[in-house]
Amino acid sequence: MKRYLLKRLLLIIPVLLGVSVIVFFLVRLAPGDPAKVLAGEHASPEFIKAVRDKWGLDKPLSIQYFIWLQSVLRGDFGTSITTHAPVLKEIRHRFPATLELSIFAMLIAVLLGITAGIISAVRQYSVFDYLSMIGALFGISMPVFWLGLMLMLIFGLKFDLFPISGRLSPDVALRTITGLHLLDALLTGNGKAFLDALSHLILPGIALGTIPAALIARMTRSSMLEVIRQDFIRTERAKGLPERVVIYKHALRNALIPIVTVIGMEFGLLLGGAILTETVFAWPGLGRYTVDAVYARDYPAIQGAVLFIALTFVLVNLFTDLLYAYINPRIRYR
């Protein structure tokens, strides 16, 4: 197991190196000159040249890449062209918002998806089975930004049940410890801030968690159907075990392996793919930061944010693989 873990950790290096090369050169293929954006629309050619010299944009691309890579290896992701703040500091400031939203969305997806999948499998071809699978198909098919706008219009504006933007109301104070508002509210015993932060999470969490919930429901149903038809499940039933024990203790445990795969991959995608949700709900997370950086042609910010998201995705997948061994002891890595 230790050898497998070391091997997987070493594989992260070429993956991140490849991501860094692709991101660095792709952002420079996009139209637009960051020096002109930074200098302003009416800046003189001399001033634009001075800006380009200051930020090293006049050097060959290969030289720019190696200078940036050396800085990254030293833990320096560069300085944002637009905010003039260290990129790593900006990422640290915004990542907790994305992490909190992704965890909340994944909790919704797991609870709804696994529950619906189990009931659909146990009651195959029932009304609930048909309705839940139609709902899952509907959830997969809906664009996230459209669903987010509909939730805002119905539950935010028409019925005024939940806030439609931000993480906290202006009149709510919260002392920051971890950057995760729910956790910080619990640590400081601030019940008002906890409820306010939770109400801000509801709509974006549902919008972001709908597609993963649909995928998990479909995967849980198919995996459970495959397991509950096997001989050892018939044997457990023949022993006279209660149906609840057979389903939740024996069938679900064996059906969890492909479900964990989907959950791990979807969680990694949520961390990097919350861009649309964060933009629709004005959520101050890493996804919105990346979008703003793209609009501003802020090369260091784009490169740093994408590389950080790639690292997070790789680590989440590594954790998912290691979780296999815990769920199924028969799996042994060599």
How would you summarize the topology of this molecule?
Layout: H1 2-29, H2 34-39, H3 45-54, H4 61-73, H5 87-122, H6 127-141, H7 144-158, H8 181-188, H9 191-228, H10 231-238, H11 243-273, H12 275-280, H13 286-295, H14 299-327
Task: List key phrases describing it.
334 residues; 14 helices; globular; mainly alpha; 0% strand
Distance from first to last alpha carbon? 7 Å
> What order do the helices and strands follow?
HHHHHHHHHHHHHH
Compute the CA-based radius of gyration.
Answer: 24 Å
Q: Fraction of residues in helices?
A: over 70%
Q: Which overall shape is indicated by the principal axes computed on the Cα atoms? A: globular
Number of strands: 0
What this model shows, in words?
The structure is a single chain. By secondary structure, the chain is mainly α. It is built from 14 helices and no strands. It has helices at residues 2-29, 34-39, 45-54, 61-73, 87-122, 127-141, 144-158, 181-188, 191-228, 231-238, 243-273, 275-280, 286-295, 299-327. α6 crosses α9 (191-228) and α13 (286-295) runs antiparallel to α14. The N and C termini lie close together (7 Å).
Give a short synopsis of this structure.
The chain has 334 residues and is mostly helical. 76% of the residues lie in helices and 0% in strands. Helix 1 (2-29) packs antiparallel against helix 14 (299-327), helix 6 (127-141) packs across helix 9 and helix 9 crosses helix 11.
